[in-house]
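Late entry, written up from scratch paper. The run itself happened at the end of the previous shift, but nothing got recorded in the book at the time, so transcribing now.
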Amino acid sequence: MIPCGVGSFELAKMAVAPESRGLGVGDKLMKACVEFAQTKRASTIILESNTKQEAAISLYRKYGFKEIPLDPKSQFVRANIRMELAISQPSQ
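Output as recorded:
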């Protein structure tokens, strides 16, 4: 999780080792990322990926990430999808 502006984090380089895939590790990582952003009072999480990463894209959508326009200044040459999650803050 990389700060990228006021109230926003970029989820960068999240991966699960091949031998650990299908065990819910990605789900736990994503939950931890969202909870981290909530503790920092963030309003959004942004990520860039490639649609060839079907399992990852499915996980992002499961958590509510929505596709947004690509960043023309992106440093990720292979990225062909950019997504954003609006963070809701837990009730006090």
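The chain is about 25% helix and 20% strand.
(Scratch paper discarded after transcription.)
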